[in-house]
Amino acid sequence: MRNLLLTICFDGANYHGWQIQQNAVSVQQVFQRALERILGGQPDIKACSRTDSFVHAREFCISFHTEHSIPCERLAGAMNHFLPKDIAVLSCREVPDEFHARYSCLGKEYEYCIWNKRVRNPFLSGRALHYWAPLDLDRLNRAAACLVGSHDFTSFCAVDARERDNMTRTVTEARWERQGGAVSFFVSADGFLYHMVRIMVGTMLRVAEGKLEPEAMERILTACDRRAAGPTAPPQGLYLNRVFYPVNP
Where does this protein have coiled-coil stretches (predicted)? Predict the structure, then answer.
């Protein structure tokens, strides 16, 4: 029995997230269909994360056990043959038996992309938020700095039917950068709550609009109440950028 780790990337514009949905097409559904054509069965695959509908991934990791002897390089090539053009396998390798794509993960980095010009960019439709109002990166980075550290992020978690667990996460980096009209928010943490990054972005855009001061982020964190934070930014600008594992998992 082999344990394989596949790293993929995907454009999420045509998918309702990673996880299989009852009445919608998901990345997992398409991935498993291609894998079954190669292996002749459906292994129990473990994913590094869930992603929301229409969210993209530049790096997304999947592990599964199989008795099939196909070499890693051939498996990656065969997957890319059967997968649609908006999903690609970047690499495949064998990992120790105890490795788990989700539970072995040390952290992740997300990027939220904004096109900050008055005129929209047609080439970024579905891939970046068009936000034409001025963005003061000094104010935004002051707000982002308040998020770094270990905090209860209840205020930055969408309210849904999921059972609540430990809402504390450790953010190791949060920063805004600009390259011309492209503005990005980067955030790394040991884990993320439901809609956490999108609520962070929506709240900090309120800071950019002058409706909140940057230091208000501290008050919002302390409130532990979703109603204290700003709106949830649209999913199309969000990318799972990197997934962190031990050096030699």
Answer: none
Q: Which domain holds residue 189?
A: 107-244
**Of residues 52, 136, 152, 225, which has the active-site annotation?**
52
Look at residue 159 in the predicted model and tell me its pLDDT: 80
Q: Tell me, yes or no, whether 147 and 51 share the same domain.
A: no
Average pLDDT, the chain: 95
Same domain, 47 and 86: yes
Residue type, 76: A
Distance CA 231, CA 205 (A): 9
Q: Looking at the structure, do residues 113 and 197 belong to the same domain, yes or no?
A: yes
Per-residue pLDDT at 247: 67
Are 19 and 31 a contacting pair, CB within 8 Å? Answer: no
Q: How many CB atoms lie within 10 A of CB 81?
A: 11
**Residues tagged in the binding site annotation for substrate:** 110
Q: pLDDT per residue over 93-116, tens digit each?
A: 999 999 999 999 999 999 999 999
Q: Is there a catalytic annotation at residue 52?
A: yes
Specify the pLDDT at position 8.
Answer: 98
| Residues flagged as binding site | 110
DSSP designation for 234 = P
Crossing angle of helices 196-208 and 137-145, in 10° steps, is 130
